[in-house]
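Practice problem: predict the structure.
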Amino acid sequence: MRHAKIHGWALVVWAVLLGFAAGPAFANASRPDVRTTALQIVPVRYDLDLRPDFKAGRLAGDCRLTIRNASDRPADVIPLLLYRLFKVTSLKDEAGRDLPFEHTVESFSDWDVLQAGFIRVRPPAPLAPSATAVLHIAYEGALAGYPEAMAYVRDKVDPAFAVFRMETFAYPQPGVPCWEINRAAGLPEFSYRVRTAVPESLTVANGGRLAERTVRDGQAVYVYEGLRPDWRIDVAVAPYRILRDERRPLRVYHFADDAAGAARVMAGMKAAMDLFAGWFGPLPGGDFSVIEVPEGYGSQADYTVVLQTRDAFLDPDKIDTLYHEISHLWNVPARDPLPPRFESEGLAMFLQALARERLDGRADAVAARVARSRESFRKAAARDAKLAGIPMIDYGKAQRTDASYTKGMVFFALLHEILGEEAFLAGVRSFVGTYREKGATAAQFLKHFSDASPADLASLYRDWVTGAASSEFLSGTASFAEILGRYRPSGR
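Answer:
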């Protein structure tokens, strides 16, 4: 998720804190204490109806949200996040009774340029541990992205291209206006069914199964159902063309002018999926989609779909950005409250280059990526003197996960050379097989490799992960081979 994870956004919005005030003003809920233990109200199912108004640039939605109290104590208040410009027009329980709620626009306590609508809902009775409840939420408003907080979130209601996704809180999501609390809850798992009505000239794209498409009076209604328990919903709308593979359930949604690029993307998707499956084991399921989005909107991957920026369609030399996203399909869910991201993004950057060598015959792809990563880190450290002193294991806590793309990439290039390719790939495969379902912390990732490795990785970990000596190596004049010499076992 090369662009979308600059801020680590792929893991947001799934926690509810303890200790909400009992009064109708919900006074203590508006500014959560990050030290408070999270009371996890989690989504179980979304039944979502989206109605974009392209003339007015607005979105209306009806959301039937099933939630569960995953904690061991009753929940008096159910907090939700929604896009900052959206207004809740109705909020009812499953019986159709109006529920009292307060809706304010709040800045995140630990990221003040990010604002969202914060909705505090009081159920008729506290939601008991393990109990579920259904909320019916109607909302509408203008959509204008988050340019002040996330440059890639340019989302708007435009017939040329529109996307409705979790980054913009385009649908209600359990959470509070605090980055750290939301991140600490990890990824949710929910089923979904999303209905989207658009003019007949447009196509709705989603990573789920197209259950229904009906056309009436110039309007087309698309209904998609999630293929498996998911953690996000992405709905893109444009005058898309669809390229399908003849033998496998693979699709590429592309802009009309990019048919040749779509064919390259389809070929690259199949080749990368086969390569990574050979290295790390087959993926569950088989359906997969790539949805083209304009440049600048950020590429990102889900279990069944990649949103891929247009540059990979237009420029054959940028097909490796697709390899990066495809590699994320083998990621293990992060269990750190604030993941450092080197174990996902650093690895994806390395695999992107390694796949470039194997699939495209670019023998110098890894070396070239190492050089670019070193230069990017040097520039970042020059802009922020504190960066050089932050251990990579602490990048999540320090909100510097952007450096995991660069230092993390070089770390994995070193690990690959130290272990040799066969042992390196076997280590990743074993880690994925062990932790794919239950998830792992970054510390567990390191221990898994260390336990399985014939090499002593202690000094590598000390310099590159738990300490910061590697910052000097990256910014200095030593060659990659000279840096590697510090850690390579004798005889290799």
